Here is the input.
Amino acid sequence: MAYLATFLWGWLLASLLLGLAMGWIAVVQRGEGVSKRTSRWLAALAAVLVAAALARVIPGRPGYWLDLGLIMLAVYLVGCALGSWLRDRVLARSAKAA
Amino acid sequence: MHGLFRWSSKWWPGTIILVVFWAIAAWNSTASLESDLAARSASAVKDTVLDKTRIEVAGRDVSFAAEAFSEDGRRSAVAAVETVPGVRLVNDQTRLVPEASPFTWSAERDVVRVTLGGSSPLPASKGRLLEAARATLGGVEVVDQMHLSRGAPPRFDNAALLLLDQIGKLKEGKLTISDTKVSLSGMARDLGGREAIAAALKNLPEGFSVAANEIKAPPYIFQAYKDPVALTLTLTGYVPDNNVHAAIAAAATRKFFGEKVVDNLKASIGAPAGFAGAMVPALGALSRLSTGTLVVADREVKISGDALYDAAAAQLRASPARDFPPGWQVKADISVKPAAAPVDPTVCQQLFSDLLAKGQIRFEPRRATIDPDSAGLLDRLIETALRCPTANIEIAGHTDSDGGDAFNQTLSEKRAQAVADYLVKAGLPTDRFTAKGYGSSQPVATNDTDEGKAQNRRIDFLVKE
Here is the structure.
């Protein structure tokens, strides 16, 4: 993992920034999000893919591409969480000030 | 926490861009990741001795094929690749180098090249053997047909290097190691090469032994040419050592009383057994020829040339084998010199005197047995006697003054008679010869010196009208 992180740091950084931006926007975005049902399905799909990656059942290049995708997704999600949390803090502070 | 769930339902639009990123990243990084992992895997197994190593990377999975020289080495190589950072799976296609039984290695030399074949234990020793072969052989082409196998006996490298040292001494041949048995065949380059190889084989590493040494030496050549015109005897070829050289030179001087001995002999080891013992009768036979060649190759003696008269030719053709040491072969190709024109008895006397001035008939000390060294001189005396068939000849024996008069008288008579008998045996009529002894009564030189005494001990031929 450390090897992949050093080898792919540029892409991971891009994913993280993308996540930060998306998380920042998500807090104030209007409109419907993904339904609970769909998000469960998505979570289940993600769990299956993670399990497949950990079990190393997909060989060769597709296996690597799966690893790559999951790592980028994970970093993206961390970025989103951070972004949303920061935006929430900023909003809360300005509300207090008003 | 509740907020996080709420927000997260709105994170999905970013994943569209993420998928684009992912596709580009996958497109871009796969090849460089694979080559990086391949390089890291190769350097991880670089210190393990392996043959036919092949590393292929697909994504993060490494296909590792190699032949290892021990189970431990094989396992540690696979483990080394598995622990390379970034490698996900190792597809282990390694196996052990096949074991050879018997473990056979060979070096074969022919006219233009040396071929190394069979099994070699490790890549390093294979390289060392090739290098040693090139160093030993100078410019000769070295062809490598060795493959790698397990199962080499201990100290194999030392044994093979020792044999490679010997291949320079061969003209052609094959050296083989089969487990711990060493076999050699072929032809040595020089005289003595066979002996040098045999000596070197004594240093074979412990455990190795010589199963067969069939190295042949080039023929051991000795030649003598008697030239009746230049009056020379030319000796060429080899003699085993200085003692034999001196003995042969001395024998040549005794037997060839009229010829100058040109000695071009060289000392070399590798002489066949009984060499010195064979050269003396061979030179003796040559001394009886008018013109002739003696060629000795190993234990084969060839004498060819012209005998002086029929009976001598018959003796030379018939006698040789028993005069030579056992195992020697003699081929005599003897013709007879055309008989010289008859001459007057006075000329005959002159010819006898000339011959006996050059050499004396020798006897064993204090006895009446003719020394075989005098065969050449006697043949010439007989040839001369044949040229004056009408002359009667007195064979006169003389002694020096040593010993009693009676003894000397008897000795001189017996010696004269022995010579007369020899002539009769050669086919001359008995009635032409009278043998007479004069004891020490007619000295031709002083009896005070050894030289003088030697001159006084003599047989004279006197032609009676």
